[in-house]
Design a protein that fits this description.
single chain, 320 residues, three-stranded antiparallel β-sheet, 5 helices, 16 strands
Length: 320
């Protein structure tokens, strides 16, 4: 949507415990939407609810559309003739993967080491078992920025808080000096600085438990991410992230995409506390009488046989 600055707007000072900022220059909005400040002090204002509009959450690299995220060989020995595997077969078109031109810059490929590439391919083949998203774990950075859920930026003078709808995840970008965390974290440790009107964020102190997407792209605990947030228009952020992990990749590489402001009237983040939604998926095998074993529809009958995870001591104890 097109917006314009209202030059006659009088600058006002707003005291806020949450952001502690002086805000000036409001942006004109259509009727029914609250006005928003264009800048906080002398810096661009990123505050608002934003969302990516691409297929990066499926696969950062360019890829063709395919029938499902989990596939198996069809009747012909060709990759294009693969068919959806049993776990996703009943989802039909809703279980398919849309194609994408990709968001990886340069030649479009992620520069894995030979050993790491083999792990990535194993991850993709075992997506349901391995993807942290399916277990509602915290998504990590940069994955949280382009999942298909909105997120809210609240910008202050010394902190920028980003709250994500998925799993109620959150991160704080520190614009002042703070101590490093005592341990590695799912969402990393974010230190921000200004490069003109671009917010540059160095993210470190990751654990190795998150992925970049649903295609099995992964990293080690040596991951470092440098993000750049540039407000191109009041409703579009250019988001770039440079990824470095010498244990996993042969060189640094970059992703780039726009993030769009959600402009619906009265928009707010709606809780998506998916932890409770995946309890049966994660722990249903420990029930003495399993709840989810069979599904019967008009055209398909699916029987589920649980496979006990290796080393699951809790399962062995519970079944005694």
């Amino acid at each position: 949507m097109r917006t314009r600055l209202r030059p006659s707007t009088i600058a006002v000072a707003i005291a806020s415990a949450a952001v502690g900022a002086v805000i000036s220059l409001s942006v004109a909005l259509p009727a029914g939407q609250a006005s928003r400040p264009a800048r906080i002090g002398d810096k661009p204002n990123f505050s608002g609810i934003w969302q990516a509009n691409n297929e990066a959450h499926w696969d950062l690299e360019a890829h063709a559309a395919r029938p499902g995220a989990v596939m198996q060989q069809g009747i012909y020995p060709y990759e294009y003739a693969q068919v959806p595997a049993a776990p996703v077969l009943a989802l039909g078109a809703a279980g398919g993967v849309p194609g994408s031109i990709g968001v990886v810059q340069g030649d479009g490929s992620i520069p894995y080491t030979a050993e790491a590439l083999a792990i990535k391919q194993e991850n993709a083949a075992n997506w349901i078992d391995r993807d942290p998203e399916l277990k509602c774990y915290l998504p990590g950075i940069p994955r949280a920025m382009y999942m298909p859920y909105p997120f809210k930026i609240t910008q202050g003078t010394t902190k920028v808080h980003i709250g994500f709808e998925f799993a109620n995840a959150a991160r704080t970008i520190h614009l002042n000096n703070v101590d490093e965390p005592p341990t590695d974290m799912w969402m990393g440790h974010s230190l921000g600085r200004w490069d003109g009107d671009t917010l540059v964020v160095d993210v470190t102190n990751f654990n190795a438990n998150t992925w970049f997407d649903r295609a099995g792209n992964f990293h080690s605990e040596e991951l470092k991410v440098v993000e750049r947030f540039t407000l191109m228009t009041p409703d579009r952020i250019q988001y770039d992230a440079t990824i470095e992990d010498p244990r996993t990749f042969t060189r640094p590489w970059q992703i780039s995409m726009p993030l769009y402001r959600r402009v619906e009237p009265n928009l707010q983040l709606i809780e998506y506390r998916c932890t409770e939604f995946v309890e049966e998926f994660l722990y249903g095998h420990v029930r003495k009488d399993q709840l989810v074993k069979r599904w019967e529809g008009e055209t398909l009958i699916i029987d589920i046989t649980r496979k006990v995870p290796p080393g699951d001591e809790f399962y062995n104890w519970y079944r005694k």
